[in-house]
Specification:
The complex is a heterodimer of chains A (about 160) and B (about 300). Chain A has about 160 residues and is mainly α. Chain A is built from 7 helices and no strands. Chain A has one domain (about 1-150). In chain A, helix 1 (about 1-30) packs parallel to helix 6 (about 115-140). Chain B has 11 helices and no strands. The longest helix of chain B is centred in the C-terminal third of the chain and has 40 residues, at about 255-295. Chain B is globular and about 85 Å long. The chains are: A mainly alpha (about 160), B mainly alpha (about 300).
Chain lengths: ~160, ~300
């Protein structure tokens, strides 16, 4: 029974962290990017594909999406982010090494699969780090600068139609 | 190609409404789901006569499009707010999918009375079902008819004028509200046809139109919403590519990725590569002219 509640807590903490990251991009920075789980999903394959290729893939994805903020209109950018999520799912699903469409279990010994007790401290630390980062951004001069820049950026194409 | 034929009416409806309102009506294909469920409940559950049941379904599809448009999207169209309309459209999709799922307890449904027989005179080729023939027949009919109506009729001219600039069209005395009504009804009607034929072939599920909506977006964005015939052809091509992927075990998982890849490539080409290419050519021709002028001097 305790494992069930712990499992729910881990899921809630991880999902909340993702929501916070999404909120920073979408609500705070004003970038209409709706596929934060794309980065989480690619990073999760680090256990199978190795850390270096995953970092390269994440950096490339980030660069591509940053470059596309300006030329794409807001609604097209949002669609592209959703399409990239589905496209990545299809592409990874086509690779047998990654377990195909069924996926593959984590081989990590640090956080074994289906073991919420070992995952809980990491999930809690991640959640608190994201929460504190949000608080720090909100109450710092940088946060104020971002707010001002967002309001003032009238030529930011992916924000203004 | 059959698969694309099932999606084609949805893509045509999408292109029609997208061009009219200058936004991506992601919610519109859901009217096909409403029509398909209405057909199921009226024909299979309430045992209505087939023709009456079909009329109820088509009416439900068009009516749902009208209600959604006037209740949620008309303001965005008038104020030219494509992003807000897209977000609202995503919300409508989630809401309608959940309602459909609740109505059926999450189970998939299938037509039994409405199913077109696949034997006798309806059977054209070994694997071709009656609904396949219907879907294939609909594509040239709907695409050609719609293209002719939009490009070669007086009402089509009015539609194009309103699509190009609503304010100017209003100032010139065009009845914009009437055109809005006709376009939304036509969009709902096409989606109803697409939804019912899809339901006949692949069965009814709550999310039956969610992926189709993204396929329609992919084609319309990649091709451009003012090219109706190309939209129909693009949808057929997506169907062919998906079937090719499905036929090869190695690429079968990429079947759903075809349309998303088309969407991503279409967006990048349309908004990044093409403007850059045009800019580069302009600069090049400007440089050549400058050199020529210098040589003359």
């Amino acid at each position: 029974m305790n494992f069930v509640w712990l499992d729910i807590a881990v899921r809630v903490l991880l999902s909340s962290t993702l929501v916070m990251a999404q909120a920073v991009l979408l609500n705070w920075l004003g970038v209409p990017f709706a596929a934060i789980t794309l980065f989480a999903g690619v990073a999760a394959y680090g256990a199978v594909a190795g850390v270096a290729p995953v970092i390269v893939a994440l950096a490339l994805l980030e660069a591509a999406f940053l470059l596309l903020v300006r030329p794409l209109p807001q609604d097209r950018y949002l669609l592209l982010s959703l399409a990239s999520l589905a496209l990545m799912r299809s592409a990874v699903g086509a690779v047998n090494r990654f377990g195909g469409q069924l996926g593959t279990a984590s081989v990590s010994t640090l956080i074994p699969a289906q073991h919420p007790t070992s995952a809980f401290p990491f999930a809690l630390a991640l959640f608190l780090a994201a929460f504190l980062l949000l608080l720090a951004l909100r109450h710092s001069q940088m946060g104020l600068a971002v707010d001002t820049a967002r309001i003032g950026a009238t030529d930011f194409c992916a924000k203004d139609q | 190609m059959l698969r694309g034929a099932y999606y084609a009416p949805i893509a045509l409806a999408f292109a029609l409404v997208a061009r009219h309102g200058r936004y991506l009506p992601l919610w519109l294909p859901e009217c096909g789901m409403v029509a398909a469920y209405a057909a199921y409940f009226s024909i299979e559950r309430a045992r209505f006569p087939l023709l009456l049941g079909m009329a109820v379904a088509v009416l439900a599809g068009s009516l749902s499009a009208l209600v959604a448009h006037y209740a949620l999207f008309a303001g965005h169209v008038a104020r030219s707010e494509p992003f807000a309309a897209l977000l609202r459209g995503i919300g409508v999709i989630v809401l309608l999918d959940n309602i459909a799922s609740l109505l059926t307890g999450g189970y998939a449904l299938a037509f039994s009375r409405l199913a077109i027989p696949s034997s006798g005179r309806f059977r054209m080729v070994h694997a071709l079902l009656g609904s396949d023939a219907l879907a294939l027949g609909c594509v040239p009919l709907l695409a050609g008819g719609l293209w002719a109506a939009v490009n070669h009729t007086r009402s089509g001219l009015q539609y194009r004028s309103v699509s190009a600039n609503r304010q100017v069209a209003t100032q010139y005395g065009l009845r914009v509200q009437r055109i809005d009504f006709i376009v939304v009804v036509m969009g709902g009607l096409l989606c109803a046809i697409g939804g019912i034929t899809n339901g006949l072939r692949y069965g009814l599920t709550a999310t039956m139109m969610s992926t189709t909506a993204l396929k329609a977006v992919a084609v319309v964005v990649a091709v451009g919403y003012d090219r109706l015939l190309t939209v129909a052809l693009g949808m057929l091509s997506i169907g062919v590519l998906e079937s090719l992927c499905q036929a090869r075990i190695r690429f079968s998982a990429f079947e759903d990725g075809v349309s998303y890849a088309a969407l991503a490539i279409g967006l990048v080409v349309h908004y990044v590569v093409w403007p850059w290419w045009r800019h580069w050519r302009e600069r090049r021709s400007w440089g050549a002219e400058k050199q020529l002028a210098e040589a003359r001097l």
